[in-house]
Design goal:
Blueprint lengths: L9 H8 L5 H11 L6 H12 L8 H10 L4 H8 L8 H12 L3
Length: 104
Amino acid sequence: MIKESKPITLAEVKELLKNAETDKAKAVLDFIKKFTKLNATEAIKLKQTLMELNIAKLKERDIVKLIDFKPEDIEDIRKIFAGSGFSLDQDEITKILGVLKQTK
């Protein structure tokens, strides 16, 4: 039974699966390693920093998307949130990109 649902980054999943023993878990871990260079600690710190921007439109699941995709420009951010029912203004996007560019 699922008691709680919380969005987590690929880096956090990678940490949870690092001692995986099953073939399925190992396959997932191998797949994730191809897409994220961050470790769980870096991802959690980045998530906190993005949350501290206090952009009311962004929910935790949106911040996780930003961390996982690591957009590099305005258009990338707009593509991530296309169809989400909200849009970010130029100032919000600039703040987000500033934080993301500070990480590896």
